[in-house]
Amino acid sequence: MRFMKELSAATGRNIRTPFWALFLAFVAALVVLPVRAADVVSAGQDFVNLLVKGDFATAVTRYDDTMATALPEPKLRAAWDTVESQAGDFQRQLRARTEKDREYDVVLVTCQFEKAVLDTKVVFDANGKVAGLFFLPATPPAEWFRPPPYARTNSFRETSVHVGSGRWILPGTLTKPSGSGPWPAVVLVHGSGALDRDETVSANKPFRDLAWGLATKGVAVLRYEKRTKEYAVAMAAMASKIVLKDETIDDAVNAVELLKKTEGIDPHRIFVLGHSLGGLAAPRIAERAPDVAGLIIMAGPTRPMDVVIMDQFRYFASLEGDNSREGQDKLADMEKQMSKVRNLTSADASSSELIFGVAPVYWLDLRSYDQVATAKKLKQPLLILQGGRDYQVSAADFDGWKKGLGARRGVTYKFYPDLNHLFITGNGKSRPAEYNRPGHVSETVVDDIAEWIGTIKN
Fold first, then answer.
1. What predicted TM-score, i.e. pTM, was given to this entire model?
2. For residue 29, what pLDDT is reported?
């Protein structure tokens, strides 16, 4: 969700993107010789070349002071090894572009790996030092993102909004059915990672599919940029202090409050839909926003995050049939990292050491939170959805909701054997490369959500 895959700056908190897509983020800000604007792209490409050559000793000399502490040479090497273990061997750089993020210059170097195309995002501070490093799914051409066949784009309208205020204000989109309403509405809460409002994962935009599909059926939808994307550098600089509240919960609560004040929205029929990490967070969001009418949990993990992560790595190894000494060593190293997580105590809460890209305080916060027990205490109805081909959040997690909620009233479960983590249809074993193919959230899922919302009357 990295903030944990659904880990991120911390590890990434995206349990919805492929594991290598976890947001490896570490930041800084200090002084050295400036890089001229015209040279920024070349500097980013050169930095990636150092990673490819395995010259990590030289790469770390390009860091600012904070990066030097957060991602020293051994951790940088391990991060690159993790990327290649999941995306395959590096093949070539395809292109590079630059963006401005407040005082930072951002270079996105699109790289072709054996199994995936990734953007290596290198962030430079005003003095030309590397202040951040991210590995993200590359954004495909715009023409790949066609509307889902079930969306009638003339039946709704979209307006730009802003969620929250002050330091962390987030741009978003409100998709509202045509007509005066008042309409029921849904807030979409992202999985792990630095995700945009569409929850874009390679060639897919599941949150846009949900927004357009539900609006076609008379349900308004609010989606927004995740804080770890809109403020990636600032959030990564705070990695040692960030917990789930900062990453996800506060912004979702603000989104609910915005909808309550929005013309044409029924303030008594506002729902929260959380995907992956967002599904894990949904019960906490409802605690903070007790007036929400119900929760929709899509692929929400129930097992400890270290268990979920290890299962993902074992799954990847099984896909490759990797029984080599090197493959087993990688699994052993990952188990060692997860053992550190399991052995954390409250005394470690102030530590700035990152374990799998996440500070101890984040891991400890997750450990202290029982999402199933929290959901069981809520009064709102719950809709819990799970894809049968999901290797990131598996049927074991779905069973965890069933077992933990027991006889609690007002819970509806839906299991879709042929859907993956993004709730897109496929065949056979799900693989990371599957996300590179354009697809859409299943119409059955959209229908089930809309129908369920229609049954909730306040």
1. 0.80
2. 23
